[in-house]
Amino acid sequence: MIQINGLKKQYRSGETVVQALRGVDLEIQNGEFLSIAGPSGSGKTTLLNLIGCLDIADEGSIHIDSVDIAEKTRKELALLRREKIGFVFQSFNLIPVLTAYENASFPLSLLGVTEKELHERTVKIMQEVGLEEMMHRKPAELSGGQQQRVAIARALIKSPDIVLADEPTANLDSETGQDILDLMEVLNAKHNTTFIFSTHDQMVMDFAHRLVRLHDGLIHSDELTRRAAGGTKVGSRG
Length: 238
What we know:
Layout: E1 2-13, E2 16-28, E3 33-37, H1 44-51, E4 59-64, E5 67-68, H2 74-84, E6 85-89, H3 100-111, H4 115-128, H5 144-156, E7 162-166, H6 174-191, E8 194-199, H7 202-207, E9 210-215, E10 218-224
Parallel strand pairs: 3-8, 3-9, 6-7, 7-8
Antiparallel strand pairs: 1-2, 1-4, 4-5, 9-10
């Protein structure tokens, strides 16, 4: 699904150069439930943004379905994001004047599906995230956890191959955060969608089936977790 080789990215802040990624090699298979973890400044959000085609690497390559994204134009990258990648953000990023139904269905309207298909798929995904009874409420009328469920519905409604979640539990209490992770794990198994999280939250790390730790822009460790084997620890991937 995703092949990353020698990935480097730096940013400038005045006279200071920040080496966000210093040569990352990573392979992610279809259907994985993976967490990229590390402290602030480790490079995890930069890596997520590069996978999501929101930024461009300075060196190295990212192949998605054997396609080198560096060879794509801006328009082609936008189409790739629209068709293959869903995003879940810690701040939800819902449109406040739209209902939950309208927020969730928005990606389908960009794909030009019929009104009938849009309605059917929106109702179905709202049922899956447990918000069928609240889909006509606006974000301000929903709790934080409910808003994040809408964001998950919006990410999944177009049946993407990949969902990227940047600190998805950061603005939620621990119980609600666990509910959200439970939901994502169920949807990962049901749809075989690849979920990739960036986080420094231990709860998210514990939920992941594979944990990649970054430190100072390099992969520090990469291993399968107990959840990947139904409770039995699996060895390091190297």
